[in-house]
Every structure is written in C-alpha cells, then in structure tokens.
Specification:
heterodimer, A: mainly alpha, 5 helices, B: mainly beta, ten-stranded antiparallel sheet, elongated
Chain lengths: ~180, ~190
C-alpha cells in the first residue's frame, strides 16, 4: 500500500467534517451576499439581504466557536507527508482561517452597532452593541470588515486550490480526510 | 337699553370671558424634541425632527379652553444615518418637496387626571388627515413647563412608505411618536 495512502487513511471526525462543510457553505454564501448586497440601491430587498447577512455572520461566529472547541479536544489527523514549506503554509493558512472566522463577523457586528443599527438575531433576539453609534467609527469598522472579508476570501481560495492540488496533482488522498467515509 | 338687555349682554360677556382663549405659551426650541421610532425586521430605527413650531394655549385649570397647533418640517427628519436622512424626504416616504409640513390641529382638550390631558385633534401627514388623541403629561418647575407624551400612528394610513415599502414585515406599520416640549407662559396646574 503506498505510504501516502496509509497516512491519508487517518481522517477527521464526523463532527469536524460536518462543521467544515456547513461553515464552508455559510461562509461562501455570506461572502457572496456581502458582495452582491452592497451593490444594490436602497430598497426592501437590500435591507432584507443585509439582515440575513448579519444573521448568517452571527451564526457563523457561534458555530466557529463550537468548532474550535471541538478541534481543541479532538486533534486533527497527523500531517500527511509533504515538503516542510507546504506543511508550514498549511498550518499558517488554517490559523489564518480560524482567526478570520472570528475577526470578520466581529468587525461586521461592531460596524452595525457603530452605524446605529443594533443586530436583532433572526429578527427576534436583540444582541448587545459593542460600541455606541459613531459615524466616524462606523466608516473605519466598515473598511475593516470589508478588508478582513477580502482576506478571508483570499485564504479560502488558496485553501481550496491547495486541496485540489493535493487531490489531483499529488494524488495523496488528502481531500478524502475531510469527506464522509464511504460505507 | 332695558335692564333685561343689559343683564343679557353682561351674561354674554361673562360667558365669553369664561370661554376666552388662555394666553399662548412660548415653545423653547432648545429643550424640545419630537422623535419617532419604528422597527425594521425587528431592528429599532429612531429618528428626530430638527425643525418644528407650535402654538399652544392652555390653562391647566380650564383645559377645555385650550388649543394646540403644530407644524413639523418634513424635510428635517434625521436618523444618524446619512442614507436614511437622504431617503425619507423622497416621495415614497414623507414627500417633503410636495408636503413640506406635517400638521396637528387640536379639536378638543380635556383633563385626564393630575397634570394629565388628552388632546384630540387632526393629524395631517402627506395630505392624509386622521383623527388622533394625544395623551400629554404636564410638569412644572416655576415658570417652566414640560409637556411630554407619546402616541402610535399607522404609517400606511398616511402613505408613508409606499409601493415596495408598504410591506409591513419589512418595516412595521406602527410608528411611535414621542415628544417633549419645553414651554413658558403656561398658568400653574
């Protein structure tokens, strides 16, 4: 059995896999929504998308916290064989992703507070404001949220590219570690 | 003039005096505000009118002789969000260019407990007239009086937020109007 395949047989837990794909969907969806909704003129549709985007962001924040807790208590599989620089890049990218999973929604939430729009989760649960309404601060937080989101999109793109490289170029079965096991 | 006519005239004058309008009060713009709040998908949205004027004549001991008139500059609504400030004067909302003022004209004032009054009148916004009853609480400190209260209006009755914005699941129909007016020249309670 090729060495690569033996190492790649160690996989992520089912819970980690579920978190990964659910959050991947929500994060990609929120990034797309963010790009689209900011291009719209002031309208009920835009208002609705902004609110959905905020609800999704807070949900991502909470789920990411649960996911991080799970990861701390259930170590991911050992690194597959790869050059040291790739291993360092992978660890760096994952650290950047986890940081951004929290930084992006927190910046967005604060921006909403500073703009004078408290976040009311799912339209029913008012969330606390981290900052008081302040127009100048709102502009800063808006830029912060936007650039952190672009950063997240860039790391996600690199992450997806790297996963495909391992799967289709290196053919080391790495991607299978994050897919549900075949029964 | 006969004694009878003199008597009738005196009676008429006395009745007229009893029903005479109280002296008009002075509105202190500095301590006064008219604001409103509504909900957008659960999120509270607050605004204030920057410019308004009022003619208030009230004798707290004879409220039925009082009258209250208001004129609010519809272009002066401010939300703390430049986008909303620019949006609300548009025709879909307050249509400020066509209806520069929202007005209130009282038809009856009556007592409603200690320092409390009920002012019934006609509220006109965007050309739509509706009867409202505004509860007012009056407190006094020396020569200064403060009249405050709030009431709810249904924005759709005044065509505020038309067409795509008529959807009340997006923006609530209920708008709570709150006011606090600093007045001088009102007789003691």
């Amino acid at each position: 059995m090729p060495e690569a395949h033996r190492h790649a047989a160690a996989r992520y837990t089912r819970t980690a896999i579920a978190f990964h794909w659910l959050l991947a969907l929500m994060i990609l969806g929120s990034l797309g929504m963010g790009l689209y909704m900011t291009s719209l003129p002031f309208s009920p549709t835009r208002l609705k998308l902004y609110n959905w985007h905020k609800w999704a962001g807070v949900t991502i924040l909470v789920l990411s916290a649960c996911r991080l807790l799970w990861r701390l208590r259930h170590r991911p599989p050992a690194d597959a064989p790869m050059p040291a620089w790739q291993r360092r890049a992978a660890h760096g990218a994952h650290a950047a992703l986890y940081t951004l999973f929290f930084a992006v929604p927190l910046a967005g939430w604060s921006y909403s507070s500073a703009a004078g729009f408290p976040v009311v989760l799912y339209g029913v649960l008012p969330l606390p404001d981290f900052v008081a309404p302040d127009r100048a601060l709102a502009e800063t937080l808006k830029a912060l949220h936007k650039w952190l989101a672009y950063g997240l999109a860039a790391v996600v793109a690199a992450h997806i590219g790297a996963a495909f490289k391992h799967q289709f170029v290196d053919r080391d079965g790495l991607l299978l570690r994050m897919l549900p096991a075949r029964r | 003039m006969t004694t009878r006519n003199v008597f009738i005239t005196a009676l008429a004058l006395a009745a007229g005096a009893a029903w005479a309008q109280p002296q008009p009060a002075q509105l202190q713009a500095a301590g006064s505000e008219i604001g409103f709040t509504t909900k957008q998908m659960g999120v509270p949205v607050d605004g204030k009118f920057g410019k308004f004027s009022a003619q208030i004549a009230l004798d707290p001991k004879k409220p039925e002789t009082g009258s209250v008139t208001f004129a609010i500059d519809t272009g002066s609504a401010r939300f703390g969000s430049p986008e909303l400030d620019a949006e609300v004067p548009k025709p879909t909302w307050l249509s400020a260019a066509k209806f520069p003022q929202a007005t209130f004209q009282s038809t009856a004032v009556k007592a409603a407990g200690a320092g409390k009054f009920e002012v019934a009148g006609k509220l006109t916004i965007k050309g739509q007239v509706r009867d409202v009853v505004v509860p007012v609480a009056l407190t006094q400190a020396g020569a200064n009086s403060t009249a405050s209260g709030s009431f709810v209006i249904k924005r759709l009755e005044f065509k505020v937020g038309e067409a795509e914005w008529a959807d009340t699941s997006m923006l609530a129909n209920d708008i709570t109007v709150r006011f606090k007016l600093a007045l001088t020249g009102i007789a003691p309670l």
